[in-house]
Amino acid sequence: MNAYLRALRAPFLAGSLVPVLIGAAFAFKEGQPISFYGLLAALLGVAGLHLGANLLNDYYDAKGSDPINVRFTPFSGGSRVIQDGEAPQILILAMAIFFFVLSLACAVWFLYAGRPVVLLLGLLGLAAGWSYSAPPFQLMSKGWGEAVIFFAFGPLITLGADYVMSNRLSLEAFAIGFPQGFLIAGVIWINQFPDYEADKNAGKKNLVVRMGLNAARYLYCLIMALSYFCVILLVGLAGITPLITLAFISFPLAFKAMGILWKSYLSHKESIPAQALTIQTVISQGLLLSLGLVLSRFLRV
After folding, report:
1. Which CATH fold topology does 2-299 show?
2. Which of 75, 91, 235, 300 is the most exposed place for a label (fewest CB within 10 A)?
3. What is the residue extent of each domain of the chain?
4. Average pLDDT for residues 231-259, to the nearest whole number?
5. Measured between alpha carbons, how far is 205 from 235 in angstroms, rounded to an integer?
6. pTM (2 decimals)?
7. Rounded CA gap, 188 and 182, in Å?
């Protein structure tokens, strides 16, 4: 049982569930009532898509880079349950399909609850999770994986969470997901550093492999910085409450992660703290953004 729990890589759910909270907080800021069951179904549906994508990634990487990856870390290189003989490959695929079906069931529930667009958004999320790892697309190997993750784990989720609460499609709700989109892309990006040799030898041509590690560290720093620059743009151009600048309280975590990777980008062991800090940045920035949105309704800022 422990092996199957590890296969889920559940701690990474923060990367998808926090944007749901941001979208709900944005709806609350706009004066919308928060439906407990709607929020719960949204969290469950998004979690299903994310877990399914994790399992599917393990399934296909078991035929590619994971068997030759000797530089895996607690945050990269897959769950290893297939490589270690703890779970049959076909069962991992079956679990992925189960979670995708669970997510679509939540979308169908929203359809009957008067939120039909959720079904479309859910199908887009499913397409993203499937095409990221599965042939014939395997976008993770063609330099498009990072962009797909950006939209699927950022703007698409905040748009959907706001829609669930408000029954409207808001451009601002879509834009509020950009900071988290950059950060979750940063998680994918930094996790490709330890996997570099295995990905390269397996023909998995993600952007880090295409650029090389030295150049890729510049892009990692840019991605992390753009997340916070987006917060400024959301206030200055989109007119969203300046209270979302509370997100900058989390910037020291991002800055520390950038510093560690900059110096230790060639050492998979020494870069592990940077991987952890990147995930911590995702969580802390997202919760601070949500707090700023909630406070703005009470403070009318």
Report:
1. Farnesyl Diphosphate Synthase (1.10.600)
2. 300
3. 2-299
4. 97
5. 37
6. 0.94
7. 10
